Amino acid sequence: MEYRYPCVVTAGRMPSKVLRAPSPKGDLVSAETRSRIMRAVGQRDTSAEIAVRRLLHGIGVRFRVGNRDLPGSPDIANRTRRWAVFVNGCFWHGHKNCPKTKSKQRPRVPESNRIYWALKFFDNRQRDARKCREMRMRGFEVAIVWDCELSDLEGLRDRLRRFIAHAMGGRSD
């Protein structure tokens, strides 16, 4: 099997607790089926992203989607008011302490091909942090909404309302 990432991890690259020997169980489906399933995972207009858009629209703010020219391509942004929202899936973006994936201190890593996944999640988290820094350097306020937060829509609505108020400096649209 070909690895996209090297099997040897340099010191300080990621937590060593994640690197355990691969499980002998293996995958439950064939490699072709797994590849087809993974390709089908959407990158935009996900149910989580649409739910966050509805909440923001209900709050009364205006925004754009498909912001490919901004760092990290935020899912939702208002360039005039200089705020952006990234809607992250807990699994793909390595949400720590997530009630949805039932992870503890670290992101949940699949049993098969453990090193590949651990590196992928680590790289995803590093890229996400870098893109948020780049957005802030451009003067944007940035919020990250995790998929698991959608289980409490009222709490998320309040958090988004506070974020928008802060991003607009206390002004209302």
Structure description:
With 173 residues, this protein is an alpha+beta fold. The protein has a domain at 47-167: Endonuclease, Chain A (3-Layer(aba) Sandwich), CATH 3.40.960.10. Helix content is 35%, strand content 10%. The protein has four helices and four strands. It has helices at residues 31-39, 47-59, 114-137, 153-167, and strands at 64-65, 76-78, 83-88, 141-146. Strands 1-2-3-4 form a four-stranded mixed beta sheet, sandwiched between helices. It is globular and about 50 Å long. The protein starts with 30 loop residues before the first helix and ends in a 6-residue tail after the last helix. Mean pLDDT is 80; it is low at 1-12 and 15-24.
CATH superfamily of the domain at 47-167: VSR Endonuclease
Please report which band the strand proportion falls in: under 5%, 5-15%, 15-25%, 25-35%, 35-45% or over 45%: 5-15%
Computed structural class: alpha+beta
On the 0-100 scale, what is the average pLDDT?
80
Strand segment tally:
4
> What overall form do the CA principal axes indicate?
globular
Q: Give the % helix.
A: 25-40%
Walk across the major sheet and give the strand order.
1-2-3-4
Distance between the termini: 54 Å
Unreliable segments (pLDDT under 50, ≥5 consecutive)? 1-12, 15-24
The helix/strand series, from N terminus to C terminus, equals HHEEEHEH
Q: What value does the Rg take, in angstroms?
A: 18 Å
Largest sheet: 4 strands, mixed
The CATH architecture classification of the domain at 47-167 is 3-Layer(aba) Sandwich
The number of helices is: 4
**How is the CATH topology of the domain at 47-167 named?**
Endonuclease, Chain A
In CATH, what is the class of the domain at 47-167?
Alpha Beta
